[in-house]
Amino acid sequence: MTNIVDIKQLHRSFGGPAVLDGIDLKIAPGEFVALLGRSGSGKSTLLRVLSGLDTAPAQKLVIPQRRSVVFQEPRLLPWKTVIENTALGVRGGDAQSLARQALADVGLAHRLDAWPLTLSGGEAQRAALARALVREPELLLLDEPFAALDALTRIKMHGLVFDLWRKHHPAVLLVTHDVWEAVALADRILVLDRGRFIREIRVDIDHPRRRGDPQTSSIETELLGELGVEPSHA
Q: Is residue 71 part of a domain?
């Protein structure tokens, strides 16, 4: 199987110590990968390279052309309606119909003509997901998209992202600080520290995954240890 992402010996620095220090990364089509790391570990820099917002030297750099990013902030244009925001970047006469379907997929069929400032935080992130998925990306990059949401909304968004992933089958890279979020969603979890991957864990647990189960608890504990956090203080 050809990997959708294939990066070898990726380096990035900004005049000081290396932010990315010889990264190797492969992501298979349809694979869900979570990326954990402390602040300053290089997560955002790696995501910027994958999204095309930053360029960096690498011996090999294979990234699909069809890719979309969902950021922590929805970044909706306030002067455009929800459906107009969703249709941005979609070419062809069927942009509106594709946007309608994408908004229906995220549960916003009733908010097509709403203005972004009238949306709740969860609704705004749903619209951002619809805007990303309407382009049918091969690679979906999620940059801490739930960090600003309350706990209950975050749980609901986990379920939504998982359902959308199963329906649309993009490869996903989720950048997060939330260890449980990574365990709950990902096929594979990578831990980045000082510009290098220090741990890789495959999560071979059926969905839905429940917090507190022996298998998920064991993985959580291991990951927290890699991040220097005692489980009782997580």
A: no
